[in-house]
Amino acid sequence: SWSDFEDKILYQLLVFLQPPPKHSFRLELYDGMHLPERCSNICVVQECTCSRMMMGDMLCFLHPSDNNQRSPLLSTLCTGSYLDVEKIACWVQNLVQSAWEHLPQWHDWQLTVLPSARSCRVLLTGPSEVQLCAVLVFAVQQGSP
């Protein structure tokens, strides 16, 4: 969505996070009924994608126990096994800032990453002091693979 806000054009973008390959998001409810207010109850679960049924203590040949390492990206975006919205916001803010210099507009527009612990907020100031503010809000889609 977009709107006018304090002489700026404000864009709000909903960014759906997707789990990495062989992983899924699981929403954990409080007391089995209430939805959590924060991202801290979204568990990242490693999934086995084997088509064979495992019997007894036989290990999956695609996921041996010594290959149970977490990806660096999950370690960056999670606290334990749970998504951490503050870590996600910081990571996206750094990505936006480092990618900005590779865009052709970076000479004409100034990018300022605004402080935010739960989203990515950027202010773009262009020619004639035109200002655009973009807020990236993070979400996961319940029931998606």
From TrEMBL:
It comes from the Eukaryota. This is IPIL1 protein. It comes from Calyptomena viridis.
